[in-house]
Amino acid sequence: MSTNNSPGAVQEFDHLVQSASFVFLLYYRGHWCPFCIAHFKQLIAISDEIKSAGGVIAAATAEVPEHLDKFRASTGFSDTVIVDPENALAKHLKKEELLDVAISDSQLYQLRGYKHGMAQPALLVMKRDGTVLQRWAIVPSIMNIGGATDRPVLAEVWGNVQKQLRGEDVSTKQAYTTTGVLHLLSQKLFGH
């Protein structure tokens, strides 16, 4: 249950990668984002299966550490969170061509405490040997409310990871079902 700030963010991620068969990393915008909260609830629903398969789960955010308790309270997420306000990990993942996390750097985000920009939603599932099993990163646009919506359904991502762990072929161009505003409203109104 770490809350390390960068420059240790890259080292913390590397440690996680070496500590398990694979790491399932999910980026979130902040404790204030209802779409992030809903996405983490999806992750929690499959977390026992991921851990049983030898994986470790982690979150990453550019949000300042003062909000971590609010994030945990609203999501129920109790695993490792890499708090990285300088986006050192996102830059490292891009440099290593593992994942291209979008960093939104508008004045609005800077006023919200993101001095080095806000890391947008993304996910990376990577084996200890560096093999990328799955990756996805939002490209912020007007259509996805600046990066808030249109996230892959994590149970589908996990299904493909399981196939890959068994040595089955999975298309890297697979289109996942995505969540949006209607999915969030359904969760709020009907609890699913």
Classify the fold: give the CATH topology: Glutaredoxin
User: Nearest-angstrom radius of gyration?
Assistant: 16 Å
| Mean pLDDT rating | 87
Q: Using DSSP, what is the number of strands?
A: 9
Q: Which stretches of 5+ consecutive residues score pLDDT under 50?
A: 1-7, 181-190
Provide an overview of this structure.
It is a single chain. Helices cover 38% and strands 19% of the residues. The chain has a single domain, classed as Glutaredoxin. The relative contact order is 0.17. Strand 6 and strand 7 form a beta hairpin. The two termini are 27 Å apart. It has seven helices and nine strands. The chain has 192 residues and is α/β, with parallel strands linked by helices.
List keywords for this structure.
192 residues, alpha/beta, Glutaredoxin, five-stranded mixed sheet, 7 helices, 9 strands, globular, disordered C terminus
Note the topology.
Blueprint: H1 9-18, E1 22-27, H2 34-52, E2 55-61, H3 68-75, E3 80-83, H4 88-95, E4 103-104, H5 107-111, E5 118-119, E6 122-127, E7 132-137, E8 151-152, H6 154-165, E9 178-179, H7 181-190
Parallel strand pairs: 1-2, 2-3
Antiparallel strand pairs: 1-6, 4-5, 6-7, 8-9
Concise description?
The chain has one domain: 3-Layer(aba) Sandwich (Glutaredoxin).
